[in-house]
Amino acid sequence: MKLLKGIAASAGIAVGKALLLDHEDLRVPPRPVDEAAVPNEIMRFEDALTRTRAQILKIQNQITKELGREHAEIFDAHLMLIEDRTLIEEVIGQLKKTRLSVEYVFSQALRKYTAALAKVGDEYLRERVADINDVGRRILRNLMGERGTRIDQLTERVVLIAYDLSPSDTAVMHKRDVIGFATDIGGRTSHTAIMAKSREVPAVVGLENVTQLIKDGDEVIIDGIDGVVVINPDRDTREAYLTKREEYIASGREFMKIKDSPAVTLDKRKIALCANLELPDEIESIQSHGAEGIGLFRTEYLFLNRKTLPNEEEQFFSYKTVVAQMKPRPVTIRTLDLGGDKFLSQLEMPREMNPFLGWRAIRFCLAMPEIFKPQLRAILRASAFGKTRLMYPMISGLEELRAANDLLNDCKRELHKKGVPYDPKIELGAMIEIPSAALTCDLLADEVSFFSIGTNDLIQYALAADRVNEKIAYLYDPAHPAVLRLLRNIIVSGHRKKMRVSMCGEMAGDPELTIILVGLGLDEMSISAVLLPEIKAIIRSIKFSTAQRIAKEALKFRTGKEVMSFAREHFRQLSKGKSFYGNLRDRREETA
Ligand code: PEP
Ligand code: MG
């Protein structure tokens, strides 16, 4: 048995068999295919070989041009493998015989081939193993498409173990196949972690070397509450985690009892409790957890895991569906936030040294009106079907906001001219997630009607701590005095101008910080649907006046650690005897 400590990314406990995803490739599971589908599998194989050949030739030409022919010779060996009839015939023969998917048959043949080569005495041949693996991986990638589709094709329930998973990988995970995951890298507010929460898949990230310590088929426990992974647990440990899982499920059930009660403090201050949505299929969970609306619809997920960009009609259909299903509750649609840790294969965005500081979100959209305007029109059109709010991500100052509004006004005029209905009073908001916006929100307030604080980014930019980097995760501190001061400034400035101030970053879903956030005066919080009932229970058990006093005290501390232990103390007093998830957290380390 081995115990590893990482970062808790998505709550819940999973116990199951590990499936390792190595740096880039999934160890391909055997997927049966019908006899009638065999010719199609052969065609897929031939197609993958043709594509691989074209890719290698392209690389070879490029290297010849840049470095000279001798450096490109290595690719001759790759091309030879693609044309090797013995291997091709072996694959086709096995495919007909076993009727398992071509990627599985090919990966097995490749293993056999390289294992045989690795044993021969000839050094030259032994060195070819790396080449063969290289080209083999390329063929597999072409066979299986984007990584996402591979995760999508699992045939048994597994705990995924990977160096990293992209948000798009996580988006296609099915809860029934992937019961949990653990990764070497990553942070608590990465979009992979956020997606795992939405999919209700327990996850631990930032474990550094989990892929080296776990083997395929090991029994693994993922504890997404405390950020612990246990490899091959002994009986007692397994039992203890099964009990913890039961407690977690029971506490969830307990909270669900108040899901339809209003989120109102004991002295009657009402807070709107909304949910964040990544994919339209989350609506059911959002409604069943009692959300009062959608405070953040991350539209970029409609653009991921596909070969082409969704056009205006397709987007309109998705937005309209969500808006109509939520009616009469409001839906806040955030315009495209690509870049950072979310990329599209079909857009070939340039690789940047600092993607979170780079060509991202509104910056990208303003440079690409041919992508931005269809989205704006689609959102405006959806607004005719229910209460819709539109919000821009990553606004850094007034100029950007005005540029976006100019395009929005163009779109309104276009629709008006064509007689296409939309809500002319559609509410417009800016996400406040860049310190420059937080410090000038009095200026922004004149040109939008609400703010939504994106703490995931605001914290990373304020503290210069990359939200997806586990190495500096200790610096990524929502309770840092700088963060609290920024929050106070945003809320006070917003309220001075009579605006509604919401928070849609992960901080809003941390039960230990709820009292302070309520006390600072937030009007709305938008979080993962599963967290709604617990946060509501906390709001319902405090007085606003007490929360205000506690928030004021919190602002006097000098370090994040002090703020956090103060917040925890109040949380513990409040939740004593109640089955809050927060109470399931293991605090031995903190007190040690
Ligand atoms: C945020 O930054 O807090 C936010 C809600 O947006 P995202 O996590 O999608 O960047
Ligand atoms: Mg953000």
State the main characteristics.
binds phosphoenolpyruvate, 3 domains, TIM Barrel, binds magnesium ion, 13% strand, eight-stranded parallel β-barrel, Glucose Oxidase, domain 1, eight-stranded mixed sheet, Enzyme I, Chain A, domain 2, 592 residues, 16 strands, alpha/beta, globular
Would you write up a description of this structure?
By secondary structure, the chain is an alpha/beta fold. The protein folds into three domains: 106 residues, Phosphohistidine domain (Glucose Oxidase, domain 1); 110 residues, Enzyme I, Chain A, domain 2 (Orthogonal Bundle); 329 residues, Phosphoenolpyruvate-binding domains (TIM Barrel), CATH 3.20.20. The chain is 49% helix and 13% strand. It has 26 helices and 16 strands. It has an eight-stranded mixed beta sheet. Strand 5, helix 9 and strand 6 form a beta-alpha-beta unit. The model has no long low-confidence stretch (mean pLDDT 90).
Secondary structure blueprint with pairings:
Elements: E1 2-5, E2 7-10, E3 13-21, H1 38-67, H2 69-72, H3 74-82, H4 85-98, H5 102-119, H6 123-144, H7 147-152, E4 158-162, H8 167-171, E5 178-183, H9 191-198, E6 203-205, H10 210-213, E7 219-223, E8 228-231, H11 235-256, E9 272-277, H12 283-288, E10 294-298, H13 312-326, E11 331-334, H14 361-367, H15 369-382, E12 388-392, H16 398-418, E13 427-432, H17 435-439, H18 441-444, E14 450-453, H19 455-462, H20 481-496, E15 500-503, H21 514-520, E16 524-527, H22 532-540, H23 544-554, H24 560-575, H25 581-584, H26 588-591
Parallel strand pairs: 3-4, 4-5, 5-6, 9-10, 9-16, 10-11, 11-12, 12-13, 13-14, 14-15, 15-16
Antiparallel strand pairs: 1-8, 2-6, 3-7, 7-8
The structure holds phosphoenolpyruvate and magnesium ion (MG).
Magnesium ion binds next to helix 19.
